[in-house]
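Folding Task

Wanted — backbone structure
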Amino acid sequence: MLREGQILCLCFVSVLLSPQASRAGSRFDLPEGPGRELVYGHCQTCHDLQSVVDSAGIRKGAWAAVLDNMNDFGLRISEEQHSRILNYLGTYLGPQPPAETTGTASVADGGEAVDGAAVYADTCISCHQEDGKGKPGEFPPFAGNGDLFLNPTFPAAVALYGIEGKIEVDGKAFDNVMPPFDFLSDAEIAAVVGYIRSNWGNEKLRPADLEDPAADDVAALRTKEMSSEDIYALRSSLRQ
């Protein structure tokens, strides 16, 4: 286990020196627990989670220092998200993590509706923004983006498998990496696709016969094992 001072250095180095490593889509399985989706959604957007995984066992105060310093590198999260991430890191990657449990059903597994707005706030908003307009040159907008409606499941495929490299949307170029969000449940991905398609005026772009994906549709997508190149090829074929 690394000492607490080392985690600060490792996190800074991973942000400053490893952009290409993050583009490789490295995936590390984190322990189940409330807030895990926020760690995936916000931390691995800029770098992989190797330093986080290697440093399991440090105290909550050390994790707090990591989060505070990450603000200098562009981390933008609300106070509530900060609290949830810190509680997760301090609990499940702290000195005395709880024993793993099995057989716990998610809210979606229980048959209850998933709030797409909540999923967006937890996993998408830091890059694509509250207004859906993205960040110039980095993250493309959702607002007014016709690619959302290329077919029923295209945006779900992007969410599952991620995409990296240069892309043009409405004549504007963007170049960054979107990591896979396959840690989200099938129902959560379906819900966030529906949310994105129904906000910021996007409902006016929806073809009359296009339906949002169901959780079963997302589950079917998981079997395809698509690469970033596959996503680009699918986009190109659907735009013809």
